[in-house]
Design a protein that fits this description.
The protein is of the alpha+beta class and about 80 residues long. The chain is about 30% helix and about 35% strand. The chain has two helices and seven strands; from the N terminus they run βββαββββα. The strands form three sheets. It has a three-stranded antiparallel sheet, covered by helices on one side. A two-stranded antiparallel sheet has the order 2-3. α1 packs antiparallel against α2. About 20% of the residues are buried.
């Protein structure tokens, strides 16, 4: 089963970045996962975010992909929801 989680790199869980928390939680559940960092994207407010435009690059897109057995993915869902 594949789980795709889309969020911005400015998302936090308390004082920590959500990306770090999410990847740690996947690892704790033994889920195979990868984190992809976008170089450009549009946020919720449809404003361009890009590395090439430093004044608006505060929330670039992230994609966490988890691929594993269905039972492992389902076991991690509560933690994923809490992280993002």
């Amino acid at each position: 089963m594949k789980l795709s989680v889309y969020f911005g790199d400015a998302v936090t869980v308390g004082p920590r970045l959500a990306a770090d928390v999410l990847m740690e939680r996947f690892a704790a559940h033994g889920v195979t996962a990868a984190l992809l960092h976008g170089s450009e994207g549009y946020g919720l407010h449809r404003r361009l975010h890009a590395e090439r435009l430093p004044d608006v690059s505060t929330d670039l897109p992230l994609l966490a992909l988890a691929v594993d057995r269905e039972e492992r993915i389902r076991a991690a869902l509560d933690d994923v929801h809490a992280a993002v």
